[in-house]
């Protein structure tokens, strides 16, 4: 069973903001790499079908499949680079409290992919309001 990673997004309020930042700060053709301080001890489980779930302003909104987890550098300069698939998959918005760094996310606790045919392209703020009143 796949093991996932969950990470807060800082500096972007929406998925579109994240994609805009990526286009502005990355050369075309470069892989999407997420850098963290700590290399996951369970990296092999994450590569076997795992994804990075991203939290925007207290809501998990999307995921990206993990392609590789590598440690670069040595000693105090060692860092982790998580290579991600370019495809950003929207998921059913799920509340999540703030935390530092990243956390493991078991497959049983991961939100389902969002069925865009059923809901169309609903703006994130409207989706949040609908969830709050129990209509979604």
What's a concise summary of this model?
The chain has helices at residues 15-25, 43-47, 116-119, 124-132, and strands at residues 3-8, 32-36, 51-56, 59-72, 79-84, 89-95, 102-106. It has 136 residues and is of the alpha+beta class. The chain has one domain.
Overview of the structural elements:
Strands 1, 2, 3, 4, 5, 6 and 7 form a seven-stranded mixed beta sheet that branches. The relative contact order is 0.23. The model has no long low-confidence stretch (mean pLDDT 88). The chain is an alpha+beta fold and 136 residues long. Strand 3 (51-56) and strand 4 form a beta hairpin. The chain has one domain. It is 21% helix and 36% strand. The two termini are 29 Å apart.
Give helix and strand order, one letter per element, not per position. EHEHEEEEEHH
Our count of domains comes out at: 1
Structural class: alpha+beta
Give the DSSP E fraction (strand runs of 2 or more residues): 35-45%
Q: If helices are DSSP runs of H or I spanning 4 or more residues, what is the number of helices? A: 4
- Uncertain segments are none
Biggest sheet, open or closed, and with what strands and sense? 7 strands, mixed
Write down the Rg: 15 Å
Count every beta strand, where a strand is a DSSP E run of 2 or more residues: 7
Sum up the overall morphology in one term.
Answer: globular
Cα-to-Cα separation, first versus last residue = 29 Å
Average pLDDT level: 88
In helices, the fraction of residues equals 10-25%
Protein name: DUF1489 domain-containing protein
InterPro entries: UCP032025 (IPR008320)
Organism: Phenylobacterium soli
